[in-house]
Write a structure and sequence with these properties.
By secondary structure, this protein is of the alpha+beta class. The chain is about 25% helix and about 15% strand. It has a two-stranded antiparallel ribbon. Strand 1 and strand 2 form a beta hairpin. About 0% of the residues are buried.
């Protein structure tokens, strides 16, 4: 079993044009979380940026206000507070 501190990144050896071998570290992205409460966001794609870039816009994020930033519960509260302030 690998130490927990080493599990977050994937390393591999890469040969560069100057014939030297370097270790390339690729960090793994975590699941997207709500900026207010920290809950995991549903419907938002996660993974390496190279894979997310290949998805269409509708596959990456839901089509609603604050998608990718707030979970559905926090969004409901934000809409309520905005309407009450008017």
């Amino acid at each position: 079993m690998v130490r927990p501190s080493l599990r977050a990144a994937k390393t591999r050896k890469v040969r560069v044009p100057s014939k030297t071998v370097i270790r390339k570290v690729q960090k793994r992205a975590g699941k997207p979380r709500c900026s207010k409460c920290g809950a995991i966001l549903g419907g938002v794609a996660f993974g390496p940026p190279s894979k997310i870039r290949k998805l269409s816009k509708s596959e990456r994020l839901p089509t609603r206000m604050h998608a990718g930033y707030l979970c559905h519960k926090c969004l409901k509260e934000a809409i309520k507070n905005e309407l009450r302030a008017q």
